[in-house]
Amino acid sequence: MEQWNLRAQMDAASTEVEAFGFTSLIYDYSPVPRSHDGRLITPTILEMRNVPDGMAHLWREDGMYQLDPVQDAALEVSAPFVWSYVGRQSDVMLRVLRDDHRPVVDYLRRSGMTFGVTVPIRAPDGALATFTAIRIGADSGAVESLVRRIPELGLLGHNFHDAVSPGFPASARECPFFHLTKRERECLHLVGEGLTAKQIAFQLCRSEPTVVFHLNAAARKLGARNRFQAIARAAHYRLL
User: Fold this and answer.
1) What pTM was estimated for this model as a whole?
2) 144 vs 123, residue with greater confidence
3) 164 and 196 part of one domain
């Protein structure tokens, strides 16, 4: 799907959530949601509609995505859930909220983005997408009517993802956290198959020192202490 088509789908979905009583829409897709040490990884696709100027930059470039409690909650549950900074907070959010989420919570309150419904969308390969409808300036009276639209939002979110995800470019499906060369991936894969450096060198028609160089380079990039840890981390980031 061309980028303009994704944007057109977002525009159409934004119109639909507005008909439900929401004002804003955010969709993101992460091929690998967390790093090996548990940190949220900035998604490869992040689209926003009717949000404050500069919000996209804050989430993409300034680390706010890593402090977003909604993303932590989306990894805890599979059903659509409510988050609210007016009135009672939902149980799933209460379980994940921490002090380090404060910058995001404060920003949303200042911006009037105090109520939303998020639809977590998990892929069989471990990827995560979220479809979030937000009501700017929600009050207690509006919240009750918006909560009743959760089933429809859940269906809309999944239908939206099913429509746009087949057209994602290959780059969107690759975790940007680490980059290994084709040869580094190949050598790690063969180590995972049980081959020694000498056997890999024979199979690839390369010298053994060259194979060791690629394996060491891959381990260094992945921050791994040895080849076994390098294989585990490469698998986590779907580099093999």
Assistant:
1) 0.87
2) 123
3) no
